[in-house]
Automatic annotation (TrEMBL):
It catalyses: a guanosine in 18S rRNA + S-adenosyl-L-methionine = an N(7)-methylguanosine in 18S rRNA + S-adenosyl-L-homocysteine. S-adenosyl-L-methionine-dependent methyltransferase that specifically methylates the N(7) position of a guanine in 18S rRNA. Requires the methyltransferase adapter protein TRM112 for full rRNA methyltransferase activity. Involved in the pre-rRNA processing steps leading to small-subunit rRNA production independently of its RNA-modifying catalytic activity. Important for biogenesis end export of the 40S ribosomal subunit independent on its methyltransferase activity. Locus-specific steroid receptor coactivator. It comes from Oceanodroma tethys (Wedge-rumped storm-petrel). Its main location: cytoplasm. Keywords: Cytoplasm, Methyltransferase, Nucleus, S-adenosyl-L-methionine, Transferase. Residues 176-251 form the 18S rRNA (guanine(1575)-N(7))-methyltransferase Bud23 C-terminal domain. This is 18S rRNA (guanine-N(7))-methyltransferase. CDD domains: AdoMet_MTases (cd02440). One of its GO terms (cellular component) is cytoplasm.
Amino acid sequence: SSRVVEIQSQMSERAVELLGLPEDRPCLLLDVGCGSGLSGDYISDEGHYWIGMDISPAMLNVAVEREVEGDLLLADVGHGIPFRPGMFDGCISISAVQWLCNADKKSHSPPKRLYRFFSTLYTALARGSRAVLQLYPENSEQLELITAQAMRAGFTGGMVVDYPNSAKAKKFFLCLFVGASGTLPKGLGTECADGEEIHQTKFTNERTRFRNAKGKSVKKSRDWILEKKERRRRQGKEVRADTKYTGRKRRPRF
């Protein structure tokens, strides 16, 4: 529908804006989950070149019929990004990356697929460039899983949340830097009427009992250890089971 097209175009525009591309030259961008090429139209209008990847032949056929300017590749990004190192000046993705959190086949491991995607994307991007991935996370666990695998692959950066206080307009953009770490852009709608900033939403887990003044669990406390283990489990790492001895202090000598 036209409403969907309109929202998609706005998000593409915002994603390209968050890339912070140089204005004096055309760039080559990767569009992950390019679908029928709506984001690509915006990239072309801005004078840049693009290659789009998508897992759906039907969507890519629509892109071909629409005679989009970019090159198209039918591929599952969970298998990795098959381009040579440093080829792209940036990457955008509109509402696609959250699908990597689903295990559609028995053999699919979401942490592994995400890591494969992010590590090969990291390689395919030029140093100093960015990837901006707009996504619809199902919950805070998904966001943490996605972010953790991106950081594991070498990216720095974080989540930019536009309109965090609006149920409808709220949008998540994972803004990732390759090489030199940039400053994370500010989310739209994060300033109140009087110019005060609203602090961006941080995702926390249930365990909030023993928090120090800064809101962190006291370092090396049982809660801190359990939270750390839980984070590592979500990243797909092997972690020892929790027992009544977890985080217990040892006596100074046996």
